[in-house]
Write a structure and sequence with these properties.
With 1028 residues, this protein is α/β, with parallel strands linked by helices. The protein has 4 domains: 264 residues, 3-Layer(aba) Sandwich (Rossmann fold); 176 residues, Rossmann fold, CATH 3.40.50.300; 116 residues, no CATH class; 304 residues, no CATH class. The protein contains 34 helices and 29 strands.
Length: 1028
């Protein structure tokens, strides 16, 4: 276990560190200040092309690992979360971070399990290497490489606002439902959030501000039951940094809970910006050549214009004429000048980008004098990552080959590209400033002068979408005042709007109006604290749907689903084990995809993963079922459905077969080695949810009892809380409850429904008996798990669409659960719920008067009867005395926390406790007792041994109990008092969502790490053989 803050002799300064990482001469003054100052700012406003990405990433790394002040190193969060508005920026930012870390000797491809080397080691850094991870959905190939399993290690996480904001709202796009709470916990604790190019974030900006405000202060319930603002609502502190060349003060006012911090943050930003202009851009500053002016003239007249539109048909004709005129203008321009360098053409919609690409390509090829050596490229956001990988050379600033790039807004921010000529459609002013920054971007090293370029614009005011017409009109007015699109010209224009102090009141009011017109921002939806608390519950409704968070992430139709293509045999469903991989996920606007699916012929197939039934279900869009497609989902299409072109990206009009992204051998083996669909109802731990979680129950060639596995989990939890310093921010009570939760977390695996998933002959084998020592199994070799079909399961338990083959639901209708030969397995059985109910019953039998079971004052006196337990036999009480004493010593809030952490340690039983479709049964001859998540009322749970407090000597025996589902009911229980929902809601309102999720994650991480490491050790032992 590595210590989070390495000891180091720090014999260098930031300038040397920066030069080694970037291979540049040194940092700009503002970059140095960001890394070395006592505190980090919250707002950073510097022009495009001056290294904001390097300032943020290397600034964090210096503060975390090399800063001379140990207090600053310790206060710097372990995780850097870099949030980008566009997908195309993600891979480029990852490559930057990888290169910088590699040059410093600090990069690792896994999660940082090896010490640093090279330059970092020479400077005395004794910490671990740092992994760079992309959060874009898709499967994780190796659990041990998952960043979330190592919260004590430094890490860099990069993703789009869709993927990241959805995760901090507990509804992670393209992630499994059970994964949501883990991401929510770790991304809201111990993170430095960097929001780059915030002018492109739309609604996401206000959401990010609200989240930051809640991490600082959130209304919580105090000991007296009153809600009041509480400070420090996270377990480990977070900080946020918003960066843009065009920040506007009124943008910050849209987040209600962030308003009190605006004045302080804005004042510091203005001071930093004044210093930047003086030191970095002054006559002797390193950026002075970029502010000399005159290097980027802009033509005042538009080179092409969309004519006024009166109707849909007129609009289509006007756009077609516009694209034709634009094609001619660009070709004529290219023929009249040297084709050297990059010609960048930025349009506002994907459709126009595709149309212009095809027109230019066709016109050039049919021209009597085609452009020699000029390659045409199309770039937009609707490509799969597999195809986007080819863009690296296209966007490489060191690539000097002549090329024409047709793009949408995806190159507006973060793309390190310098075009010699820029054509851009009219856009909101912040977008235009970013586009200007992609032209003549650098200082020539050989002359020390700024590059020169030319800027042309196209008038699209008559067809403003996806923007608002008033935004474009304000930008057009500003363009008329601009002679040069370089930094000097932009500074002069914006300088007129910058002074908040010396103008008279009326003049200042007019300036404010002008500023708001030029930098408009009015998000339609801003989350409030009620939304945050509601989103903590990840339980879907009865149809499998969830609260829609897309309105808090992006505006309009730019809210996406993720789509991937596979060859699916005709008349067959996808295998349950089929998983999407990151490189094959194509983002598609959800409305566009809905229309696409509506037009699919019946024989063509589209599916989505249904978390209620745990299987792929066909997507059938009808007028009354449009809700089946909403943002954030992942959809699978048969390759024959079309919809994608390797050169053009997503294309609803394309009917041609789509070539799937090649699958690597390991992924193919994992999918094809699984049992056939008819046999997929065996081990619920390995087939309940294809994207997350309990595959680790099957250990290669090794048996483990509940006591043995739990001992491993307790050891790893203790290491997390002590050796890694993660426990420093927890109260003594919280740490104690976590350790008790680790001891009880798998108690429910002693249940017959779990043990019945093992083959009887394997369980009775000499090897199993020797390793288990007559204790219930928690882990077993993969070959020991049953894969045959459940025999006592009626058709009523399966949700099958009419168009699907229902043969998988065939059962023996005459079988009953009371039969000696009955299959005791239960679909969707959750052992962690059985564990929590066992704690309740054990505590109740030991002390039914415990305050955890108390009713509100006065109710018992009103004549309500309370159940009383039968006392435990003396022998069982003696064996379980230490476990019982530990439970009875807990306070009521501690009992609630213990129950929640145990039940939630796989992310599937959390705030709500209710039945799922598989809990509906007809195989019982008598009236069915209540059942939830495979646990029935009055189920017996046999005794088993659990490790003791020292986790080394002999364990303790948990007594046999009968499980009861009283907490599932609304209101008060005669046995246990408060319901499950009341207990969890009290916890949430007392601790807050960020702290509660963090506590929940620690046990889960310890369990996953124990299982993964047990699996790795077992595989290694098997590979070596018994005599090695």
């Amino acid at each position: 276990m590595d210590i989070s803050i390495p000891k180091t002799n720090r014999t260098t300064d930031f300038d040397t560190f920066f030069a080694v990482a970037t291979r540049l001469s040194g940092p700009y003054p503002y970059q140095r200040e960001l890394a070395t100052d006592v505190s980090l700012p919250e707002l950073l406003s510097v022009p495009t092309g001056v290294g904001k990405t390097a300032a943020a990433i290397l600034g964090w790394l210096w503060r975390r690992r090399f800063h001379g002040d140990a207090g600053i190193r310790d206060a710097t969060p372990r995780r850097l979360v870099y949030c980008l508005p566009m997908r195309t920026l993600v891979e480029q930012t990852r490559d930057f971070a990888n290169n910088w870390l590699n040059r410093l000797g600090m990069l690792t491809e896994n999660t940082g399990n090896s010490p640093v080397n090279g330059w970092a080691k020479q400077q005395g850094d004794t910490g671990r290497r740092i992994a760079v991870s992309i959060l874009m959905g898709g499967s994780e190939k190796d659990e041990l490489r998952d960043w979330s399993l190592w919260p004590e290690r430094d890490a860099i996480l990069i993703g789009t606002q869709d993927m990241l904001l959805s995760r901090v709202l507990n509804r992670g796009y393209a992630a499994g439902r059970a994964r949501w709470p883990l991401d929510f916990a770790l991304l809201n604790n111990d993170c430095l959030w960097v929001f780059d190019e915030v002018q492109l974030m739309s609604t996401g900006l206000a959401t990010s501000l609200q989240l930051d405000a809640w991490r600082k202060s959130l209304p919580l319930q105090d000991e007296d039951g009153f809600r009041k603002a509480a400070e420090g609502t996270v377990a480990r502190s977070c900080h946020s940094l918003w960066m843009s060349a065009t920040l506007a003060k009124h943008w910050l006012e849209t987040a209600v809970d962030w308003k009190p911090r605006i004045l302080t943050a804005w004042k510091r930003m203005e001071e930093d910006r004044a210093n930047f202009r003086l030191r970095d851009c002054g006559t002797s500053g390193p950026l002075a050549p970029l502010f000399a002016g005159g290097n980027k003239p802009i033509k005042k007249e538009a080179v092409a214009k969309i004519k006024a539109i009166r109707g849909a048909k007129d609009g289509n004709r006007a756009e077609a004429e516009y694209l034709t005129d634009l094609t001619k203008a660009i070709l004529n321009f290219l023929k009249q000048r040297s084709p050297a360098g990059v010609t960048l053409i930025i349009v506002n919609t994907v459709d126009r980008a595709r149309g212009l690409f095809h027109l230019l390509d066709r016109a050039n090829k049919s021209s009597p004098q085609p452009l020699a050596g000029v390659v045409l490229h199309l770039i937009h956001s609707r490509f799969r990552p597999a195809e986007r990988e080819t863009w690296k050379t296209v966007l490489d600033k060191d690539n000097l080959s002549p090329r024409v790039i047709i793009s949408t807004q995806v190159v507006e921010a973060g793309v390190d590209l310098s075009a010699s000529v820029l054509f851009t459609e009219l856009a909101p002013w912040p977008s235009l400033v970013q586009r200007f920054g992609r032209c003549a971007r650098y200082i020539k090293s050989e002359t020390g002068c700024a590059e020169s370029g030319k800027v042309y614009w196209m008038d699209t005011l008559a067809a403003p979408l996806p923007y608002d017409e008033t935004e474009l009109k304000s930008a057009q007015d500003a363009l008329q005042q601009l002679d040069d699109a370089g930094l000097a010209g932009l500074e002069r224009l914006l300088g007129k709007l910058d002074d908040d102090h010396i103008q008279p009141d009326e003049a200042q009011r007019l300036l404010n109006e002008e500023r708001r017109k030029l930098f408009p921002y009015a998000p339609r939806f801003v989350p409030r604290d009620k939304d945050l608390f509601d989103l903590f519950d990840t339980t879907p409704d009865l149809t499998g749907a969830d609260l829609d968070i897309s309105r808090f992430i992006r505006d309009g139709d730019e809210r996406d689903v993720q789509v991937f293509w596979r060859d699916i045999t005709t008349d067959k469903k996808p295998r349950k084990k089929l998983k999407a991989r990151r490189e094959e996920l194509c983002p598609v606007p959800f409305i566009t995809f809905r229309k696409f699916v509506e037009k699919l012929p019946y024989q063509h197939r589209a599916w989505r993963w249904n978390y209620v039934i745990g299987d792929w279900e066909r997507v059938i869009v009808m007028e009354d079922r449009s809700e089946v497609i909403f943002p954030g989902q992942v959809f699978l299409l048969d390759c024959e459905c079309g919809g994608y072109d390797l050169n053009a990206g997503w294309s609803s009009e394309s009917k041609a077969r789509v070539e799937p992204v090649p699958i690597d051998d390991a992924q193919s083996a994992a999918e094809t080695s699984m049992p056939k669909r008819d046999d997929e109802s065996g081990d619920a731990d390995t087939d309940e949810e294809h994207d997350e979680g309990e595959r680790l129950s099957a250990i290669s060639e090794k048996w483990q009892s509940i006591e043995q596995h739990t001992r491993d989990v307790c050891t790893r939890l203790d290491a997390l809380l002590t050796q890694s310093q993660l426990g420093d921010s927890l109260t003594e009570s919280e740490s104690r409850v976590l350790r008790i939760a680790a001891r009880w977390h798998d108690r429910g695996k002693a249940h017959d429904a779990f043990q019945a998933k093992l083959k009887v002959d394997e369980l009775n084998s000499p090897v199993a008996k020797a390793e288990l020592c007559n204790e219930p199994a928690a882990k077993a070799p993969s070959a020991a798990w049953r894969r045959d079909k459940l025999q006592a399961l009626s058709t009523a338990t399966r949700f099958v669409l009419p168009s699907e083959d229902s043969s998988a639901a065939e059962v023996d209708e005459n079988s009953t659960s009371n039969s000696p030969t009955a299959d005791k397995r239960r679909p969707k059985f959750r052992h962690e719920l059985a564990s929590a109910l066992a704690i309740l019953k054990t505590l109740w039998q030991a002390d039914s008067k415990h305050l955890a079971f108390a009713w509100p004052d006065g109710l018992e006196a009103a004549g309500f009867s309370r159940d009383e337990p039968e006392p435990l036999p003396d022998a069982e009480r003696e064996q379980a005395s230490r476990l019982i004493d530990e439970l009875t010593s807990l306070t009521p809030p501690e009992v609630d926390l213990l129950l929640y952490i145990v039940a939630a340690h796989h992310g599937k039983v959390r705030m709500s406790l209710r039945s799922v479709p598989e809990d509906l049964r007809t195989e019982l001859t008598d009236a069915c007792p209540p059942q939830a998540r495979g646990v029935r009322d009055n189920d017996p749970l046999p005794k088993c041994r659990l490790p003791g407090t020292d986790n080394a000597n002999a364990g303790w025996t948990a007594p046999p109990v009968t499980l009861h589902l009283d907490p599932m009911e609304l209101g008060l229980s005669g046995r246990y008092g408060a319901s499950w929902r009341e207990r969890t809601q009290r916890l949430l309102e007392r601790l807050g969502p960020f702290r509660l999720a963090y506590l929940e994650s620690l046990l889960r991480i310890a369990d996953c790490r124990a299982s993964a490491e047990e699996d790795a050790a077992a595989k290694l032992a098997t590979a070596k053989g018994p005599h090695q």
